[in-house]
Amino acid sequence: MEYKDIIYKSPVKHGLINHEKTYKDFQWEDVKKYFEHFTDEGVNIAHEAIDRHATNSYKNKIALLWEGEGNIKKQYTFLNVKAQSDKLANALKNLGVEKGDRVFLFLPRIPELYISIIAIAKIGAIAGPMFSAFGPEAVKDRLLNSEAKVLITTPELNQRVNEIKEDLPMLKHILLVGAKDNLKKNEISYESEINKASESFKIKWVDPEDYLYILYTSGTTGKPKGVTHVHNDMISHYITTKWALDLREDDIYWCTADPGWVTGTVYGTWGPWLNGISQVVYNGRFDAEQWYSIIKKYKVTVWYTAPTALRMLMKAGNEIIKKYDLSSLRYICSVGEPLNPEVIKWGLKVYNLPIHDNWWQTETGSIMISNYPSLPIKPGSMGKPFPGICAKIINTKGKELSPGKHGLLALKRGWPSMLREIWKDKKKYDEYFCVSGWYTTGDTAYMDDDGYFWFVGRADDVINTAGHRVGPFEVESALVEHKAVAEAGVIGIPDTERGEIIKAFIVLNYGHKPSPELKKEIQKFIKKRLAAHAYPREIEFTKDVPKTRSGKIMRRLLKARELGLPTGDISTLEEG
Ligand code: AMP
C-alpha cells in the first residue's frame, strides 16, 4: 500500500519534537506569551514582527536580504525596516489613510512591497497585495470590490492601472515607487512623500479582531472573493512558522512565493519576521541556475517553495546542481499543489534532504496540515494536522468518515487565523460553513490509519495551475469578451510539470474561422486582461459547449469527455 512507503525518518530533535503529545496538550492561548504587547490596550502584528526586534538585541540583525535581477542587492536590518515603515506610515496618514482603509499594493517583489505591508498594519489599515503579473481586469476587480483608497505601484505597472483608473472613483491616491516626473492627476511620488514624512510614528494599537489584509482568491463561480484576515492571525503565523517550517534564530530563510499569494504574505513576510528571522527575497523570474546561486550566495538554510518549481528544477537536471554549493540547506518545505513522491525521492537524492509538504489555503491563513521535522514522511501525503487544528474527512451531511474513505476535507471552525469575512459577501462566506460546525475546504482527501492526510482533488471546478488557483468562470467571462468568442467552457487538465493547465472549449461567433493564429490571439488577449498564469494553454474550437437546462456550463462533462472518464449523471443536460 502506498502509505507504507515511508522513506524518511528524521533524526531531528527540535521544533515540534513530539507531534502526538503536543497535539494533545496544545492551547492557542499559550502562544500569546511569545508576544510583547498582547494586552488589553490592544495589539499590532507590525509591533511584534518588526518594532520590538528593532528595540532589542535583534535591532542590527538582518531582516531582509534582497536581490533583484541584474545582481542588484540591498539589505535591511530590523531597525531599518522599522525606520522605513514608520516614515511610510506617516506618509500614508498625511494622505488621509485611517484605520480600516484599504491600501492596495501592485508591486514586484521589491523592498518597498514588504515595507508597505508593515506600514499599512502600523496604521491599522488593511493591506491588499496583488500579484504583479495581473492584467488590468484582475486589478480592477480587486480595487473596485475593496473600494481601495490608496494604491502603491510602480510607473511600469501603473500603465495597466491607467486603463481602468476612470472606473475607480474611490481610489484617491496612487503612490508611485521610482517615478521620475510627469505625474498625472492622483499620482504622487513615493520617495518624495517618504522624504517629507516625520521619522517618529506612534503605532496604532488595534483589537485582535481588526482587519489586517485582504487577498482575493477564486471559486467556481463569480468574481474573485476578498478573503479577509485579522491581526489575531499572528498567533497562527508565529507558531506554524516555528513548528512546521522549523525556523530557528540563526536561519537564513527563503520563501519563493510572491505576497500577491497567501504564502508570500504569511510566510514571506509575517511568519519569519514574527520569529525574528533573516529572510531572502529574490525579485526575478524562475531560472534554475539563478535559484541555486541564491541558495549558495546567501547560505540559505530553510527553503519554502512549490511543487511546480521543484519539478522545473528536476527537469533542469542534476548536473547543474553540482556547480553550486548547497550544503547550507537543512530544511525544505513545499506547498500549493500535490507534491508527487518522485519529487521527494529526487530531493533526497540531489539535496540529501526530504521535502516536507504542507497543506493550507488563503482562507485558513496558516498551515493546517504538515510534515514536521520529527515525523516520518510518507511520500505523497500532506502530513498530519497542526496542534490546535481538528481536521476530518466528512460527507456532505457532516458525518465523519473512517480511515481510507474519500470525502470532504473539513476543519473544526475557530482557529486564530481562520478567515473572518468574504469582503462584502456574507453569502459566499456562509457557504464555507454549510455543514454545521465545520469549515469546508473545497478539497477532497482521505486519512490513513496513522492519521496522515492524502489529497485527492477539488470538490468543485477550481483549477490549480502551478499552485495558482484559477476560477473557470473568470477565464470564461474574459474569453467571451473577445470579439470572435460566442461561448466558452474552461477546465483544468493534468500536466506533468504544472499539475494542471487550463483548457478552453470555444464556440466561435458567426463569421470567425478556427485557426492557429486565432488561438494565439485569444491566448494573448487573456494573458493581457487577467494574468499570464490564467490563460488557456490549450484551446479547442467546438460547435457547442454542454450546458444544463438552466444554462450552467457542464464543466464536469467537458472534463470527463476530455479525460475519457465516465460522464456520470447528465440528466440535466440541455436538449438539442
Ligand atoms: P490557495 O488558497 O490559492 O493557496 O489554494 C489552496 C488550494 O491549493 C487548496 O485548497 C488545495 O486545493 C491546493 N493545495 C494547497 N496545498 C496543497 C498540498 N500540499 N497538496 C495538494 N493541494 C494543495
UniProtKB/TrEMBL annotation:
An example Gene Ontology molecular-function term: acetate-CoA ligase activity
Top EC group: ligase
InterPro entries: AMP-bd_C, AMP-bd_C_sf, AMP-binding_CS, AMP-dep_synth/lig_dom, ANL_N_sf
GO biological process: acetyl-CoA biosynthetic process
A Gene Ontology cellular-component term: cytosol
EC number: 6.2.1.1
Transmembrane segments: none
PROSITE patterns the UniProt entry points to: AMP_BINDING
Pfam family, one: AMP-binding
Keywords from the UniProt entry: Acetylation, ATP-binding, Ligase, Nucleotide-binding
Gene3D superfamilies, A to Z: 3.30.300.30, N-terminal domain of ligase-like
AMP-dependent synthetase/ligase domain ranges (all copies): 53-412
Superkingdom per UniProt: Bacteria
Residue intervals of the AMP-binding enzyme C-terminal domain: 474-552
PANTHER family cross-referenced by the UniProt entry: ACETYL-COENZYME A SYNTHETASE, ACETYL-COENZYME A SYNTHETASE 1
Family in the record: Belongs to the ATP-dependent AMP-binding enzyme family.
Protein's name in the database: acetate--CoA ligase
